[in-house]
Amino acid sequence: MSIFSKIVAGEIPCYKVAEDENFFAFLDINPLTKGHTLVIPKKEVDYLFDLDEQTYSALALFAKRVARALENAVECRRIGVAVMGLEVPHAHIHLIPIQKEGDMVISNPKLKFSPEEMKEIAEKIAKNF
């Protein structure tokens, strides 16, 4: 069971921003920017492009809704989208609020926010979802 499946099951805490019966979105605990969010299918599949077409399409639409909520909650020029999928064997999409393209460089230093700040960011996104 992946760490993301454990998050969905409530075994590991997270800063949830959105959920429906098939998908889940939560703040990245090592964010590149304020509001950096991960969007996942609840069903554990290792690689994004191994999802069946219906799930893949529905995940993209769910991610779009989360991105719109994120745009309204965090000041940014755009929401960058990244798919790497090497660090956790569970399909996921990174939604990263950006001001410039350089904000998406994965090797950039990760930001640190207090638990209170993370909770506030998550609540603001959730309210806009």
Average pLDDT taken over every residue: 96
Largest sheet, if any? 5 strands, antiparallel
Can you count the beta strands? 5
Query: How big is the Rg?
Result: 14 Å
Number of domains: 1
User: What is the H-and-E element order?
Assistant: HEEEHEEH
CATH topology (level 3) name: HIT family, subunit A
Structural class: alpha+beta
Number of helices: 3
Question: Which band does the percent of strand residues land in?
Answer: 15-25%
| Shape, principal axes of CA atoms | globular
How far the N terminus sits from the C terminus, by CA atoms, comes to 28 Å
Main CATH class: Alpha Beta
Indicate the percent of residues in helices: 25-40%
Task: Explain how this protein is built.
- With 129 residues, the protein is an alpha+beta fold.
- The chain has a single domain (3-128), classed as HIT-like (HIT family, subunit A).
- 32% of the residues lie in helices and 19% in strands.
- It has 3 helices and 5 strands, in the order H-E-E-E-H-E-E-H.
- A 5-stranded antiparallel β-sheet has the order 1-2-3-5-4.
- The longest helix is centred in the middle third of the chain and has 21 residues, at 53-73.
- The protein is globular, with a radius of gyration of 14 Å.
In short:
By secondary structure, the chain is an alpha+beta fold.
Question: What's the arrangement of secondary structure elements?
Answer:
Layout: H1 3-8, E1 16-19, E2 23-27, E3 37-41, H2 53-73, E4 78-82, E5 93-98, H3 115-128
Antiparallel strand pairs: 1-2, 2-3, 3-5, 4-5
Helix pairs in contact: 2-3
